[in-house]
Amino acid sequence: MDENEKQKLIDELLSRGVAEVIDREHLRHRLVSGETLRIKLGIDPTSPNIHLGRSVTLLKLRDFQALGHTIVFIVGDFTGQIGDTSDKESERPMLSREMVRENMATYAEQAGKILDMTRVEIHANSTWLSKLTFSDIGKEADAFSVAEFIARENIRKRLDAGKRVSLREMLYPLMQGHDSVEVSADVEIGGTDQRFNLLAGRKLQEHAGSEPQDILMTNLIPGTDGRKMSSSWGNTINLLDPPRDMFGKVMSVPDTLVETYFIHCTRVPREEVSLVLRSENPRDAKLRLGREIVAIYHGVEAAGDAEDAFVSLFSKREVPRDLREVTISEGKSLLDFLVEQDFANSRAEARRKIEQGGVEINGEKILDRDFVLTSRENLAIIHCGKKDFVKIHIL
RNA sequence: GGGUAGGUGGCGGAGUGGUCAAUCGCACCUGACUGUAAAUCAGGCGACUUCGGUCUACGGGGGUUCGAAUCCCUCCCUGCCCA
Prior knowledge:
Helices cover 48% and strands 14% of the residues. By secondary structure, the protein is an alpha/beta fold.
């Protein structure tokens, strides 16, 4: 690639979806210099499901990879085995070795949709963290003061609220920082929420007499409901979501987030993004966004199919072309049927859905909760709620 | 070690002897509206029901009472303060 093109890629790398770079000029120099850098990303092995929020850093890593740099994954199996302190259940079992391995395999599979995993180094931090002695830890801990630790916003908030902050949590940045020392990271990447931990890497590297890593922080993106994207909120779009679900979730995002998603979760050129946002109506822009995102994880074809299905089902309110068919025996109550089809979790819920007008047979609302399916309903299409359809054959 | 406050539905959080299947907010479900599964509005939101009710639930166990989420005993767990 020519110099001009490379310069452009570097500019894009350092700005698209990027919240902060430390030290920006230093990193730019190194990128321009042509040396191969080691780019580190820490991975929490407790939750194998990657969501779109995490894809932001992975896409960023892909950009690094495109420039020929080496990606280094650190699996936080050691920290994972100790357990997450923010979890209330104290009896929570530690993550077993097998569990970590399993989670990691799923993780790698998902990350592989974005990155060339054959060119990714993977290390488990238990390899070195488990060998540290108390005096090693003591020395490293000396690089930090209690004051700077509790000055952190999230810690401050919890302390002010009278919440518990475990002493062990103070050790987290140490562990993460130590990882940087071990793998000789040139750059560490993470979300803005990782600021303190990322900086700890710099500090400990200096402490160990090596050159401090540069840090690239990506923005955190809001979830489908506008709040912070988090698995515990249930507002995530997961990389493992089937194409149609994924597409639907993108469509449920508030219009105001479309640009953010375009910038952070796709690599559609920025000029094109602003063009799309300016010229197309919000719905079409969002449809495009859905296609782009689904295409990354499931391919262009699946993306097209997901869009067609969405438009047909929700915009045109059509019965899906490829609807499921089931055969049932005559005389089955609608109530039982809904529960069997998993359209309702209990008979009470099924009753509610019927009484609230959520169930249709051949387009006709059924309000009688004691409705019984007979041969008259043979080949009928039952529609429950907004998206559950099934065609029945009566035996 | 001492003191003190707590453990309620998926979460947050009311309730301190009956009218509590438990106010309310979030999440969720259904409907209306809409370009969207957004926003807004309306209704719903333990299970079973022959729609009269019945059963299971307020950290675990035991007890008092006609009746307990609410009182007593006991066990378990957690926060905060002091040392």
